[in-house]
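Model: Ready when you are.
Researcher: Fold this.
Model:
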Amino acid sequence: MNYGRVLLPMSLVLLAGCQKSTVNQDLASTVDSASIKCEVSAADLSSADASGESLKIVGQSAVQSGNAVKFTLTDSGSCVNGQKVSWKAAGSSSVRTTSTGLTSVYNKAGSYVVTAQEKTTGTTDAPVVSFKTAVVSEEMMLSGPQAGFAFNNVSFSLVVPASITPSHISFDFGDATATVNDVPQATHVYFEPGVYQVKATVTEASGKVTTLSQRITIITLVDGMSCLQELAISGATEAKVKVATSLSVYIPPCLTDKIGAVRWTFGDNETGANQSVTHTYAAIGTYPVTATLYLGSSQEPWITLDHSIRVIENLVVDPEPPAPADPNSCTTQGATRESQSELYSETLACGIDGTKSVSYRDRVVEECKLVVEKLAWTEVSRTKEVTNEGPCEGQSCKLPDGSLLANGASKVLYSNAAPAGSCSTVSEQRTCNNGVLSGSSSSNQMTCHDGCGNFGSHGTVKIGVVTGETQVPLTCSFGEQGFFDVYTQISDQTCKDGSVSNSNTRQGTLKTPGQCPVYSYAPTDAFTACSADCGGKQSRIFVCRDDKGVQVDNARCQGSAMPVEERVCDGNPAAVRRQEVTTTSEEANSSKLCPKNQIGLIIKSRDVVNTKTYACIDHQVQLESNVSVPSPWVEESFCRDYVARRCSQDSLSNTEAKGRYDWMVKCQNQLPIIKDFLDNFNDVKVTLSGQQVSLGSAGRELYPTFMNFAFKPEKPWIAPKVKTAPCVMPETVYVATVCVSSCATPEQQILAQEKANGSLKYVPFIEALTKNMNFVASLQSAQSMGSKEVVKTKVDQWVTELIDTEHDILVFKMKSGRELKVTPNHPIVTSEGFMKTAAEFKAGESLVQLGGNLDPIVSITATKYFGKVYNVFVQSSAIHKNILVTNGYLNGSAYFQNAGVKDMNRSLFKQKLTSGVFSK
């Protein structure tokens, strides 16, 4: 929000372009000539009529410190002659009255109240009107009433010095209603009486955030208190160290006879009790000031007003302001008037050394008399009237012995003059609180003698108390000295002031019989020589010691056998150290590409010289290190024709594979690795289970998958699956292989044959793939499901993963005790001759063994498997030739996950394979 630099009464006020005037200059020169005139706007007249007040002050509600402020008095829109007006401008640095009003200069920031009263000649005072002006220097000020009525409007404004530019303002009224933001004047209605904290949060153009707050007390509407919102503290918010500052509470006319007392706190542990006060601060800082008002003679606080004073170092002495115009002049000799003074307080004695604060107002009668050839109001009588009497405070307390204890002081008294324990157990610190002694009335003893705990109270005497022990020497076998019998020592005891004293001390009964030393063999840290270089034995050396551990001549231990203790040791470990050297070979992949139309690896191989060093470790000859030193790599090509892989890490549908192919064609001129792949494999066509598959074909798609060697180990890089994707690929990505589907774990047994003239046998899938076995066993015909006869079917491709990944695996456990581990989408023959996926089976159903026997399923357990899974394509699309034998059970080849997926769960399948096979 952009705030303009204007002066708005009772609104957001930004003071800009204001230059401080010099106090010593003529004040007329510091005020615009236009503002000297008594001008009343239509808005001011409308306001006066609406409020029912004809007499009002017109002036500025906010000003920069050091500037002159013009105030005029109007009566129903007409200017009141300045010579008939009595003005008061407390806190002003310079005051000047003219026929048009009052001009004041405020050098210090603060909140000031100016009052005006028409001079009258009758006995009744004319009404007093007021005007509040907020003065700022370097800091912002939140301006608004500190008291108001429920269901009535109250308005708040922010006064901003010229040096600050706000960009955002938020008003929070403290009653959980919504904040008001970025308005020139925040007006609010409170619906519940209470004390609320109003906050204005200001964000400056520089980003600095400042929060200002003030308290407002809301009460229920009371007749005769319509001027409540005018209650205010008038005075500066700035002061100097050790320089007196003046403050006063402006009490508007409708409350003058209702306020009985004003009591101040100055924030430095000092207090005051008059309507107008003067206070001097001893140290710099910011002090919270409060003025609490009391109604009539009530002792309960009514409304508390807040003020704050920032005290700075006293470096420059402020000039004394000029004396104001004489307010006591009058015009009609003999006229009288009656008035009330400000509230003031006296401190009176009460109770025992106590004091109380009593507040007064003087009712003053004055008469207009000729004084030294000049008419002036002269006091003829003054009546002192009590408005509020505070409680008696600070009274002393009378102690049990008749002495006095000062208010706030403490004294330790006792409930027992001679307790069994210490006096502290019966003591109580009693404090004088305004004439009342705290604590228990039973604590009324002034003095106390400490007792001796369980022994008894002061003066207790006991006879024959054990107080210590004495020693009687023993005679030992080897003439040892220093061994004694121990006897008790007894005394007569007396308790005196907490201490037990002994008398008549003597020897008592035997307490502890003495004992001469006992000797035995004890181990040392020394051993005999080791019996072998590695893993030998040695014996510990023992010596004779007494029962205190002191070594003595072994002759004293002749009555006992010396212990035997052995341990394993190494006499000469270096003598058994040796080395064994062996040579092995290892392989690694090469970064070179295979020839066109081939996928595979160019392997690097090398010899590795392995040196094992054996040493004596933990008392045994063991392997200490195993160092391998490789020879230079030698490349060996293992490129071969295309073999499809299953790519769980990058599994695509036909639509996604076609989308990837279209993306590669679009991006091949921007990505050289894509162009190389398309050039080398664009004309490759592969037959899988009788179906021709190629890149970008109309039927089933081949598609490449990618790896990123920037990671160790390498990670898959998932290429886009739509043509519209951007042509972006990391430089470390390469084409790893092409992909199809598969589903068995590596240890599952498949009936396969390696060579044409060989024989079928059960081998693990991983062995069948590694050896690239040429044949697998399948059903002999569409009617051979109940026969154990099988035929050899040519393998088209063995299929596995490119990399190890995590798979969901189903573990079938059968009644026969056999197992089958497959992925959930692996095709398996049912007892009814259907082909369905492993995930569709349930415990209680049966799998079909080779020969047609049914093996009931006991349980199916889901588990996780990290590694590769396997399957196979055969060179046939005939259904019976795609039924293979895994772990002895009939299940489907990869055909049923690809081209043959249409044959899953078809009734035609049962008619071809199972007619008459299973007995009912």
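Researcher: Now this one.
Model:
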Amino acid sequence: MTRELVLGRGHECEALDGVLDGVRGGESRVLVLRGEPGVGKTRLLEYLTGRAQGFRVAHATSVQSEMELPYAGLHQLCAPMTDLLDRLPPGQHDAVGGALGLGSTHAPNSFLVALGVLGLLSEAARAQPLLCVVDDAQWMDRASMQALAFAARRLHAEAVALVFAVRVPEEDPPGGIEPVGLPEMLVKGLSEKDARTLLRSVLPGLWDERMIGRLVAESRGNPLALRELPRMTASVDLAGGFGLPSAQPIEERIERAYARRVGGLPLRAREFLLAAAVEPTGDPALLWRATDRLGLGHDAATEAEAAGLIKIGDRVRFFHPMVRSAVYWAASAEERRRIHRVLAEVTDPVADPDRRAWHAAHGAAGPDESVAAELERSAGRADARGGVAATAALLARAVELTADPVRRQDRALAAARAAHESGNPDLALRLLSVAGAGDLDDRRRGEVELARARIAFVSDRGSEAPGLLLQAGARLAAHDAALARDAYLEVVNAAIFAGPQARTDGQYQAAKAASVLPAPQPSRPTDLLLDGLAVRILDGHTTAVPGLRRALRAFAEPGLSPEEGLRWLWLICVTAVGLWDHETMSLLAARHLRLARDAGQATALPFALTMRCVVHVLDGELAEADALAEEVQTVAEAIGTAAPIYGALFVAAWRGRERECVELGARADEGAELRGEGVGPVVSRWARALLHNGLGRHREAAEAADLATRDYSSQLEMGIPVWALVEYVEATARTGCPERAAGAFARLAELTRASGSDWASGVEARSRALLSDDDQAEPCYRQAIEALGRTRLRGESARARLVYGEWLSRSGRREDARDQLRAAHDLFASMDMRGFAQRAARELTALGETVTEDSGGDRSDLTPKEQQIVRLVREGLTNPDIGARLFLSPRTVEWHLRNVFGKLGVTSRRQL
């Protein structure tokens, strides 16, 4: 097809040619064509494929009815590429194979499927450029669209073009998503001149200019409307230009025009079209089997094709998707059900049991247990293939077909859980209403309440969840002690996120309830953690330390199950921080990140990355921490979710990046308003306190630290609230008001003494020194330097030397002060902690020292992505490993490495 054949689309065709030219040059291109039905998106896709000489072309057309079938769209697009699966890493190979129904024994994780699709497209483009087109993408099943949108956001240098055609308006259809955040081109109606040209080409005989003008105006330049509206207009109106304008939207008028055309066909042709509309795969063999069962001959197909509404070749294709819609909805409900039942009968129950169940469900006129049970089995298969959204949709339909009230409740609860896991809280809550209707025993009602509470935690991130979880745990306690104890531990976790915004004293109530609810034997690591935290909440930190240490050891055991680790390692890492146990925190954070990477869990990965980022910051490895904070953003961008910003906030505060710290802090504050995530403002205030102490602006630091700790008296003090006490002590001491810090120091000392680690002892000694008289301060300073020097906490160790050097300088001991301040400055500079380094430099300058400031940055012109890749090459990772880590294809990694080699003047990975 040449550009001239697409009337009035010169600009659009030029853009599509640019897509192909970019891919021919070795780059990847992504484009979303967005426009109203009938505006010409499919025609532009035909132009694109017609111009793609030398390309491998893959095509998928989404059908609204297939949105419930997991990976149906991905199967259309990628099934011809399955011979390349062996080139993918094993985890991605199994995930994509499972998604495409190729007999994988593992349930495909959606994140690994998305990574595998990215790799598969890259591999398919190695021999020749690849063009993938997806028509009517708004109807693609959720699992497929998530995978393709992920790949589209990560394509860079693979010689792949991925082009979607999507309807407006930009509202997500129920149960599905559109590609968002990608380059778009809005396809509008034709200009008046081009619209008139098109209209004259389809109007027979004589025409009236007034009528031409009216049709052009009513169509708004929509090409399909221009072709179909004349068929709806009386010939006398065409001749004389009379008639009233229609109040119906264009889409409705076009569908009505198609319905009229269908209605004028013989009955057998109408039945044939309905069978084709109901059968979404476009498989001619299946359609022929159905029409044979219906007693329709080939004459019916011939008449349907002659009407210009359908074409039968290797696939069954309607002239336009709106034809399918018009045919389907013009039929009566019983006519549609009859065709669905016939298609269920002729669909192979072994080769395609899910589609058979789907047809049977739509063919049922009322409750039908056999069909509902078949849907339930189909949902189980969908879940095994990683299609959680499809699992929810299939179970929801099974609920509608279930007459038995108890079985209906059980299926509704299972469907609600699946909907929650798929990220559809509205559907989950509707299903929970069904599950909670009628008579329920306490156990089932407790399960419903627990599911509702977990939805609240995800949506509100804390404020209401603790109370709801507490209520569910109390109801479940008499029936399932393990599940009830899990709910109580979730209360503690939710309250940590809620922080001062928690609406109840849920932690105390959960701890009290857990203390009288025996743990299952043998105790799980989670039971040890819950019991330890309960003692911490009820009896205080000192009494709880032995039990919490047992919990830490249990989670550090090599036999910990991946499921338990992925679920609870974040909370146990927070517990390790509360015990000032840096070694165990580091070990568990590394395990959490490893588990999240191995499992490909996109939801767990940002939190695992954040905790590992915190460990790197504490170790003074800010470059590594910055890379992980960047990876958190990369994960969020890849999967299209909001990213936790706490890791980046840690790095910004310790580095002294004021603008970045303030901006990230504002985002953390917004989280409290939007999601009830009250811990956000606590973290942002602590970060500002640390930032200002580093910059030597102690009065501002004291204000921020005071706000961070003020409202935490009723909540579990672990991590940031305790670190804020440390900042408050230093800030008030440096502003000449040490008496204001007495209460904060008492709270701090209670926590550090019981823990007894070098980290705890060093921080306590440093804080005590800041508040002590001159004759008592020096031994404390020396104790802090000695204790922190035995740890890997280089930032805290450097801070001890800094405050000691400042004290020595004020005491007139200039040489001793120079030694401590120089050591502190060099440590801070080596870690790129610029705020603290500048504070030390100012003190040295006041003592007559000349300090040369290091820029602290990488002197090369490597981009942040290139710096990440270099670090991973140095760790010994291969290109596929690096691609999996950074959510890039191996070919894009290769491209970045070629740029790195050129910039650094090296020729091999070994030289890096």
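Researcher: Key takeaway?
Model: The CA atoms of residues 79 and 820 lie 66 Å apart.
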